[in-house]
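=== RUN LOG ===
request id: a7f3
mode: sequence -> structure
chains: 1
length: 232
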Amino acid sequence: MSSPQDVGVVIVAAGTGSRVGGAELKQFRWIAGKPMLLHSLQRFQARADVAMVVCVLPRQFAGDPPPWIFQSDLDRLLVASGGKERGESVFNGLDDLPEECTVTLVHDAARPFVDDATIDRVVEAARAGKGAVPALPVIDTIKEADERGSIVRTVPRERLWRAQTPQGFPRRLLEEVHVRARRDGVSATDDAALCEHYGHEVVVVRGSELLMKVTEESDFARAEALLEKAGA
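=== RESULT ===
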């Protein structure tokens, strides 16, 4: 049975990548043979259930995107302008999705190696009416320290997870929490946190080790090594 084409994807690529440094934006730099953003854009567009992908770019690039971004399905590509904060960027991307996108995925461009199995798990939960976050269990011992660096306590790790993206939601739910957050002046580091803030259920689904976030310069080489090791 074919899957409905009801998924809209917002790829957040509006950051400045200040921790990497350099003149070129992190999300535009090449990794594993292509620009970082293009990896996730093409992966989502390869799926039959994805109706549209909106790439949210820095304002100065939204009107004149880098030419490689058009190495994609142009019928399922839109470009939106980013905002001052992440929440505004996501809101702008949501606003551009067509009506048939009743399930929305929000993905960070800094996680280029998204895989279909993870996407499937997130979409399944979102179609069931829940928010969904791909994540991996924390395996390290976690210490809480004070401002002097002295350990305050050891945090139990049994219920701790490392959140990843894409995070998935029923579209109406995600739009509702973003409208309320803008009205209330509420901000969060991810969309799941906004849903949690307003009392909506969000579940954890299994993520992937390949979904590492490229944050610092050394992460580029580490990500390529991880991809090569996985044989992807």
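=== NOTES ===
The chain has one domain: 7-230.
The chain has seven helices and twelve strands.
=== END ===
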